[in-house]
Amino acid sequence: MTKRWEDNFEALLAWLDPDRERAGDKYEDIRHSLINIFSWQGASDAEDLADETISRVINKVPEIALTYKGDPALYFYGVAKKMQWEVMRREQSVAANPSFDNVTDTREPSETKDFEREYECLEQCLSKLPASDRELILLYYQQEQPKIDSRKELARKLGIAPNNLRVRVHRIRLGLHACIEKCLGSKTET
């Protein structure tokens, strides 16, 4: 996990409430509301969309916390609304191309090479993780059953709260992302 993300997350909690426990409760309430919002809109990946919304807000907290007036939850909901539009546009563009389902690979050769390079970097970065973190991130993103149920079950097996599981996975994902970016940067230089 990066120092910047830690600082931004701490700033987020302080923005939500000066009392850390109440801030944590508000964070949980907001996350739950975001999941409900995306679920009501028919999103199959409501948890991921909620997490992405929160990540976007965390990245913006240093800019907005001092000047934003009103309930911070409303800011989250505004970001979620924009994400809904993004998802809807993406789905419409796929639906607008009726031959999309019949095409096996529409990428240009250079895009395929980029994808292969990204995959190689992902594999390298996964291999650098401690075994417990690697196993956790892989289990977390398996799709054998509905995401919410499988993730609750995973948290139960690990003996931790679902929110603690999400935080751990988020931290691992941030580390993976930084590792992949570094790997891709070094591969393009060679």
Task: Based on the model shown, name its key terms.
2 domains, 8 helices, 0% strand, globular, mainly alpha, 78% helix, 190 residues
Summarize the structure.
The protein has helices at 3-16, 20-40, 46-64, 72-95, 109-128, 131-140, 147-158, 162-189. Mean pLDDT is 80; it is low at 99-107. It is built from eight helices and no strands.
Walk me through this protein's architecture:
- This protein is mainly alpha-helical and 190 residues long.
- The chain has 2 domains: 3-95; 107-189, Arc Repressor Mutant, subunit A, CATH 1.10.10.
- Helices cover 78% and strands 0% of the residues.
Roughly what fraction of the amino acids lie in strands? under 5%
User: Uncertain regions: pLDDT < 50 for 5+ in a row?
Assistant: 99-107
Order of helices and strands: HHHHHHHH
Task: Return the average pLDDT rounded to an integer.
Answer: 80
Provide the domain count: 2
Structural class of the secondary elements? mainly alpha
- Note the total helix count: 8
Sheet of most strands:
none
Helical percentage: over 70%
Q: Distance N terminus to C terminus? A: 27 Å
Q: Tell me the radius of gyration.
A: 19 Å
Shape: globular
Could you give the count of β-strands? 0
